[in-house]
Structures are given as C-alpha cells and as structure tokens.
Amino acid sequence: MSDAAQSLAGQEEVRYRALQAVDPRAPGALETFTAGLHDESWRVRHAAAEGLRRLPDAERVTARLISVLGERGETGARNAAAEALAGMGTVALHPLVLLLEHEDPDQRKLAADILGQLGRAEVEDVLLRALSDVDLNVRVSAAEALGRTGGEAAVRALEALLDAETSLLRLAALEGLVALRRAPATERVMALVDAPLLQRSALRLLGLCPPGASTERICQALASPVRSVREAALVALGTQASGLGPYARSELDAVARAVLSRIPEMTDRVAQALDVEDVQVRAGALVAAGALGEASLALAVAEVAREDRLLREVLFTLGQLGPEGRRLLLKNMGALSLPARTVAAEALVLLVDATSVPELCALLEWAEDDLRAVVVRALGRTRSPQALAPLVALLADPSLSGTAVRALEQLIAVHPLAALAALEAAVEQRTTPAAVAVLGRLGGAQVLPLLRRLARDADAPWRAAAVEAASRVSGDAGLELARGALADESAPVRIAAVRALGRQGGQEAGSFLGLALKDEDRAVRLAAVEAVGAGGATERALDLEALVRHADGALAVLAVRALAKLGKVGSGMLWDALGHPDTEVVKAALAALTAAEGAADGAALAVSLVGHPRWDVRAAAARVLGDLGRPECLPVLEQALSVEHDALARRALVDAVARLSGR
Amino acid sequence: MPRFDEGRPEMTLEEFRLLRDHVYAHCGILIHEDMKFVMERRLWPRLEALGLADFGAYHRYLRYDAQRIAELEAAVESLTTHETYFFREPAQLKAFCEELLPLLEKKNARTRRLRLWSAGCSSGEEAYTVAMLLKDSGRFDDWDVEVHGTDLSRRVLAVARRAEYGPSALRATPPDLLERFFVPVGVNRVRVRDDVKAWVSFGHHNLADEAASQLVPRTDVVFCRNVMIYFDQAARRRVLGVIRDRLCPGGYLLLGHAENLLSLGADFELVHLKGDLVYRRPELPNGEGR
C-alpha cells in the first residue's frame, strides 16, 4: 500500500473511532453524528447511522434524519439516513407517513421504501393510498413495500395491480405477492407468464399455485433458451413440490415427467442446475431430476447434499433414481464429497442384498465414521451369513458396537447357528466384551457356564458383560452373579449388577438395590435409581423421595421418574421437585403429575408453573393442565395464553384451552 | 418409496429446541428451525452409539452424564459439515496470491515473519492450500512462516495432522500442483509433502470462546471461509471480535464468497482488490501498535 493511501486509511480510522467514542447523551452528539452521515467513507457513515439510533431523543433524531433525506446530491448521506431510519422502529413511522405527503416525489418514494423496510402492518392503509400517487416511482415503491408489510387488503390491492397498464407496476405487484406467498387464481398468473418482462416473477408466483396445469406451464418454461427463465421455473417447481404429501407429489412428478421427457437435453440442463449457487434453483432441479428418474444424475444429486437445507429432497430424489442410480453411487463412492458420500450410503442401505457384502466391507476399510455407521446398518440388511464375521469384529469398535449389535440382531434371526458360532469364537479369542452381551441374548442356558467363568475374569469389562448377559439368560443365575458383582471393586461391574437387578425385580433384588442407592460412586447410584423404577421395588420409594431433594439434578430427575413408574407420586414429593433449581427436575415432576391421581392439588401445582421464566416449563405445565381435564383451570390458561410470546408454549396453551373448553 | 428412517425415533420440536439451545450455549452455532430434519438425521447415530431410546434421553445425557462434554463435542461434530477441499474458491485465492502476498511481503520485509490463520480449518485442506500458495509464490522461502489451522472438532484435526487425502479433497487441485506438493500413498490417496507440512500447525479452538483465542498467534491474514454461516448475528459479532483481536493492524480477513459483514458493524474496512473483495483491520493511526 502506498504511503498516501495508508495515511488516508489512518485518517478514516481516526474519524471512525472518534464517532464510536461519542457519548450519545453528550450535548452536540446529534450534530456530530449527522455530520458523520455526510462522510466520504461508508464505514464512518455506517458508524454515524448506528450512533444516531443510540441517541435518547428518538423523535428529534428522526426529524433530523428526515431532513437529511431531502438533501439532493448527497446520495451517501441520504442512504445512511434511510438505513438509520429503517433501524429506528415504530418511532419513525409517523414522520415517514407524513413524508409520503411531501411535494417532492423523490421524497415520497424514499418514504415508501423505508416504510417497506420497517415492515409494520399498521402502515398498510397509508401505503394503499400511495398506490394512487401521481408519480409512477412512488406507486412502484408503495407496491413493493406492501409486499413486505401487507395483510389481506394489501394482497387484494396487489392482485388488482396485476391488471395495471404499466409493466413496472405489474412487476412490483407480482414480486409483492411472491414475497407474501399469496397466489391469485392460476389462470390469472398463467396469463402473465408470456410477457417477457414479467415472465420470471410470474413463474415464481405460479409455483405458489396448486399443482396441475400450473406445473405443466412451469415445466414448459424449462425449455426456454434463457437461463434466468429456466431458473425461475426451477424455483417454482421446487416451491410446488415442497410440503406435498406422497400422493400429491407423485401426481406432480407424473406431470413434470411427461413434459420434461419431451425437452431435448433436459438431463444436461438439470445437471447444470444442480450445481448452481442458488439453493432454491437446486431444490427445483432435484424435483426435475427425480421426475426424470435419470440414473446418470445420481452423483450430481448426491453432491447437492453439501447444502444441509436440501438433505430431505436429496434423499427423496435418490430414491426416485432407482437401483441403477444407486449402483452408480456405490461404484463412485470414493469420488464423492463427504456429505454426498453420507447421503449416498443412506440410499444404498435400501439397495443392498446378499451379494453386496464385499463392496460394503471394502467401504468399511476407508470410509469416515459417519459413513461406516450407515455401512454397518446396510450389512445387517444383506441377510447374508458373510456379514456375520465383519459385524462381530465391529463389536470391538466403541463408536460402532451399538449399531453392529442391532445389525447382528437382524442376521441372528435368519442364521442363528452361524451367529452363535461366530460370537463364541469372538469370546474365546477375547475380541470384545460386547460379544458376550449378544451371546447372552442368543445362546440361552448353554452359555451359562461360559458366563459364570467370565464373571470371575481378571478384566472388569468382561466381568461386567458376563453379569449383565447372565441376567438375560436366567433369573436365578442372574441374581446370583449380580449379588456377587455388587461387591466388585470396579464401578462398571457394580453398574452391570444394578442393571441386572432392575431387570430381575422382586423383593431380594429390591433390598440389594437399597445398598446400591448408597454406593460411593455416582454412576452406580444413578443406575440404581433407574433400576428401582424398572424393577418395581416399591419398598425403596422413601429412598427415592429423599433423592428428589438432592442437589444433583441427574439424581433428582431419575428419582422423580422412578417414583412415577412405581406409582408413588405424592404431593409432598411433587412440591419438593417443583421447587428444585434444575428445571429438568421440575419438568419431570410435571410429567409425573398426570399419573398422580392421589395428589389432589395436582392442578394447583401445575398452575403454579404456567408463569415460569422458561418456555419449556410453561409448555409442560400447560400440557399437564390439559391432561388433568379440570375446567376450573381454564381462566388461568386463558390469561397465560394472552401474554405468551413463545411459539411452542403458545401451542401447548392453545391445545390445553381447547381441551378444557371442549372445543 | 421405502423410508430411510424406519424404526428411528422422531425429534419433537421441543426436543429440537432444547438440543439447539444447548449446542448454541456451548459454541455459538445456531441451528435454524427448518434444520430439524437435518439435526435429527445427524444425531441418530449418536443415539445408536449410546443406546438411547429418544432425543429426550439424549438431552438428559448431554445435561448430566459424566461423558457429557465429550458427547457435546461429538454432537457438534455431527452437526457441522466438514466439507472442504484443496484450492476452494480459486478466484479469491488468485487475488490473495497476486495482490495480497506482494503487499504482505513489503509490509513484513523487516521482520521476514508471516503468520496466517485458517479459522474453522476442518480437515486441513485450506491451511495446506495456503501454505502451498506461499511456497508457490517463491516470496517467502527463507522467511519465518506459519499457517495455523484451528477447528472446534478434534476428530477433523486428527485428519488434518495426518495430511492424507482422497479424490474428493483434490477435485479442484490443478495437476501441476498435485504433482509438486503431494506424494502418493496408495490407490487414489496422496499425502501433503513434508516441506509444506512444516509450515502448518493445528490446534483445537472454539471460536465462541473469547478467552481461549489468546492461544492463537497474532496473524497477518485470517481465512474464515464458510464458517460464519453457522452463527447467528450475536455470535458472529463475538467471533469477529476475536478475529479482529488476533489480526495485526492492517491484517486481512478473507470470508467465503457468499459471506459478508453487512449489518455487523464496521470494525473492518472493505478493500476492493482487482479480483475480489476482502476485509482489513484498519491500520492504527500513526502506525501505533505496529
């Protein structure tokens, strides 16, 4: 950089910093910032606009900004003033409405533009009147602004403008309706598609019309030699397809297929469109690709998965490309990007059969973790005995063993003997303790001697696996091994024992769980609380009630849930839980309330929480009140609804009010 | 058409929002409501790996389990797309080579020291690309050069350090550069040459963690491309504050071609290069702090 340029940059920085250092409450701040609006540097002007928004006397600031809007020849200052006014909110509305009456049409146009940026429904009437302005530019700006602010009256006015004599107004009306996502009758929009100036906007609006004749017209536009027209048509096609149920979607696809298959080089054009920047165009290109069912597009379709927002449509489209498309994916997995590989693998899960095992195993050799998880699922779906060995080997991989167990379960159902042999071999070779758990589920009484031996193993993970597996094979053996394991020096083994006791249930298990609830290790205590609930150990209810008050939220949540499972939800415990500082405990208590028929003041408990600071607690309280069906709570719910701003809590309140009022 | 998601739990809107807020509080990454489907799909493998029945249980796991910190990192890794490749956005890289590098050579001629930061470097392709471009320019051969790559994901950093890549990562690499800067290590796989690797270091860094940013060296250029898309306005402001703090006065910030700093304040000045627009931390008045 030259010295002169550096010096200029330094001066600009000085002015910028000086503006940032201005105290908004200091005398003269308004003048300083106003001067800043006229600076040659956009950074300084931007800082001035931001500074003006911080000044305390908003009305005075607004008046000054309005006066800057009138400074013809000061384009930078006017734009900065408009930016500041658009950020001022409701205080700017009235002065801008007055400005709409200004004698200078340029001022009126600016006023309409800024009102559009403010996007407030209360200026709809004013903007509607501005549609009758003598100046065309003002009318166009008003129409555009209505597209950002409008309600029903705006929609009607914009629809009326579709018949305006001036193309510019018709265009603004089309764009406004697109922005409002409101389409007039299909025929009315179709009539505008042929006008070259209006074509792109009309096509996009056509996308909001019901599928059918509109779909056919949209697809015909894909034959246009003009790229921007084709892209508008693709946006429309994507808009139409979004949110359609399976039946309506297949009708749309059939119409699209009939038209697209007659257009020369359509596949190439779709392939190009799948790679453009605009997400909406790509969404439409996916619909077109699916309708064409052209397998050669599979790789390009999969690559669209790099855009997260289109993941659902990519998965759907890959399904439409048939086995040939999926084979193409399998063959080219190594050349795809990571997101495309992941989505392609998901598609492959549906394709695989017994012959796919070697290819899937080859993928396992090099693929990333996310992809490997999908491949493991696919191996389970092959129903091939060849998949047993790789899956048993994967039991040793902590990140994949859970998925491998579920995949093995599918294979065990069709090849039980081969699966048993593979698992026994894995245990004998000490591949991984995870194999013991699967063996316990599969092997029955014949594997008990092996499990007893492993329960005395030198390595804790093997002891833990054996104890848990035994409880699945036999109640007596499970109880015996679990009792011994409760005294194990390793916490994971004690946790396995606790889980086994929970699965076993009964009085003896309950008394052992009482010991585990006092274990020195937190993880064992947590497992014990869950096991008490799972095993129905009602005699431990008092122990759990004490834990509801525990400062550790995890213990308290589990205790509340376990008490609900035991049917031991009393109002004392509920008050304790509802007063817990951890809101997850409060929500667990609310969930337990509906099961607490004995707690006569359950409704009062829930009512106490409809004004809770957290949205999720308020929503949970509303749901409970709806479930309890106590009409006397209706006024409270209605009151809460009138002040509720959170969308999810509102929905729960609306449901509860509807239920209690019998609507 | 058969469903891809048979037997998998659905994520309720409430679960989505609780998980989203949890992730946001951790690293400032905001997941928009229309991304519920994506979040559900990306987190299913985590539920499978942990043997959890539904997303409510997963939320409790993230809140209370002893492994919750590690799991939160795993969740964030699943939720962020680590999609990158060598020589991505060639127009910007051309402007970097032809216009910024000569300026930097002149500016740092006295110290003969150059520091660059690839923020959100994912599996390392960008950091290595920058190092390759520096080598290719021939301007900094005997300089003290370091390209520092950082990412939130520890898993991708392991890939970056290994420096071995397949065809997808190389899809935009010109053949002559492929020959010059990589060595083959197997079928369809290559490794970055050692002299390039020697200029590149990697580290774990959460861009939302302002305190931890002190571990990143003061730098002349920051590449932060396609990272801001994950943040909301408030988090972007914080991240930009971190970047500005780590940039030397007069240092450059290069964003992805679809990103800009509009409406984020003007702590950076826009610089119109012939081939691209970049941002610059303004020089201090009178060269102060240089």
Automatic annotation (TrEMBL), chain A:
<dbReference type="InterPro" id="IPR011989">
    <property type="entry name" value="ARM-like"/>
</dbReference>
<dbReference type="Pfam" id="PF13646">
    <property type="entry name" value="HEAT_2"/>
</dbReference>
<dbReference type="InterPro" id="IPR004155">
    <property type="entry name" value="PBS_lyase_HEAT"/>
</dbReference>
<protein>
    <submittedName>
        <fullName>HEAT repeat domain-containing protein</fullName>
    </submittedName>
</protein>
<dbReference type="InterPro" id="IPR016024">
    <property type="entry name" value="ARM-type_fold"/>
</dbReference>
<dbReference type="Pfam" id="PF03130">
    <property type="entry name" value="HEAT_PBS"/>
</dbReference>
